[in-house]
Amino acid sequence: xxxxxxxxxxxxxxxxxxxxxxxxxxxxxxxxxxxxxxxxxxxxxxxxxxxxxxxxxxxxxxxxxxxxxxxxxxxxxxxxxxxxxxxxxxxxxxxxxxxxxxxxxxxxxxxxxxxxxxxxxxxxxxxxxxxxxxxxxxxxxxxxxxxxxxxxxxxxxxxxxxxxxxxxxxxxxxxxxxxxxxxxxxxxxxxxxxxxxxxxxxxxxxxxxxxxxxxxxxxxxxxxxxxxxxxxxxxxxxxxxxxxxxxxxxxxxxxxxxxxxxxxxxxxxxxxxxxxxxxxxxxxxxxxxxxxxxxxxxxxxxxxxxxxxxxxxxxxxxxxxxxxxxxxxxxxxxxxxxxxxxxxxxxxxxxxxxxxxxxxxxxxxxxxxxxxxxxxxxxxxxxxxxxxxxxxxxxxxxxxxxxxxxxxxxxxxxxxxxxxxxxxxxxxxxxxxxxxxxxxxxxxxxxxxxxxxxxxxxxxxxxxxxxxxxxxxxxxxxxxxxxxxxxxxxxxxxxxxxxxxxxxxxxxxxxxxxxxxxxxxxxxxxxxxxxxxxxxxxxxxxxxxxxx
Length: 548
Hints:
Blueprint: E1 3-6, E2 9-12, H1 16-25, E3 31-35, H2 43-46, E4 51-52, H3 61-71, H4 78-86, H5 88-98, E5 104-105, E6 108-109, E7 111-112, E8 122-123, H6 129-142, E9 147-151, E10 153-160, E11 171-178, E12 183-188, E13 191-194, H7 215-223, E14 227-228, E15 233-240, H8 253-256, E16 260-262, H9 282-296, E17 301-304, H10 310-316, H11 318-326, E18 336-345, E19 348-350, E20 362-364, E21 369-370, H12 383-399, H13 403-407, H14 428-444, H15 451-474, H16 479-500, E22 524-525
Parallel strand pairs: 1-12, 2-3, 2-13, 3-9, 13-20, 19-21
Antiparallel strand pairs: 4-8, 5-6, 7-8, 10-11, 11-12, 14-19, 14-22, 15-18, 16-17, 17-18
Helix pairs in contact: 1-6, 1-12, 3-4, 7-16, 14-15, 14-16, 15-16
């Protein structure tokens, strides 16, 4: 019989978004917090630059709104921008109250500037902001008696009332694999929150860790949620290029503090692509680097901050300084070799400003969600801001619901059936499929695309999905198999969205349609098992495209 756990709220994901929501609710509800690895794993821990918010009296909400709108290539949803930015300062003060040690100077909290921003508004903790935020929230969550943490637990699929043959569809839990014991557990909860991060691992080179496999997006899709704008995958322009350096990002703030991008001969090149030079938005900088690398046939370009005083560099970028020194690169004296890498998923599960999805009782927050904030390209340091703002607004919405009526419902979740599967003696298939998927996504669905490349990618992913489905049906599951299954689903969604967008906008650049269309619209894909919820407004259905 499947082991079962009952909670008021099930949070799948332990980054900034999931932890924020858990802490907001824990005084009133029993919260289960799932982490598929250790709590410290995940994209939040790796975030360097900081969090964007209007904190300087010389800055205005309208400035931040406009910067976000421009970076998003005029595809962002105004309501999402307004909600995020106007709630930003309060979210930052909540983090300060939680104990996050943001860097201070004589004027107060030090604010830096990053590409695409018109003002200094990035609050940070040196160059390890994500770690400072994550450590603080983890410490507080572990100390709370109503939050129960489950490390090394990966969700397999969501459980809905419709799947159970019941009326009035609602998400009521999830099947979860404890991949240390190999046992599947059924978590029952009237409220489930997906905070699982993005899907950058769909690409061969990424700035993130191994966990960004699109789990929440894939689970929500299979459960019947609409997905939007998956073609917009942000490639961070500057990741450390070194054979022994794995996924180490060089923060945007290096360019914000005067870092220059150089070709191998030492000449600058960004002025040829944008008047803002090194301070152009990430999509422009990434494409410029990609263009120059292909034009010259070079393996990387260089980011040089060595003209700034050594003391300044060590004070502002201690993590980068020490890490580069480990690889024999002294950034106070020489430039840093860098390449673009997949970094952030701007699309995801469609939600409103409270994190509500198409399925009652199911919320999505953070990178796994599509709020409409980022449009066709995320503005630097808006990601952690979105995590905290939407973690708080989703928690506020949950508190307004009558959870007691659902908590008291008496029904059993079906056992997880393993009677028809066996142990696999061919796990090599998983690793081969994983490698193949990430390589053809990098080659065919990367920074620069064509219709022919996308068609090739679609052909490959359909064959790969069938092979994975056959394997999934016949062998016992593992974390690697669950992630591969999810990644294949998300890769198909990326390809479908990219094929439907016949223009170049923001992060989506195709040589067959190199100009931006006069009118903008989101790319929305609808699953075969989708049912329109009562809360969906008619104007949200206009841009709906064909299903995968």
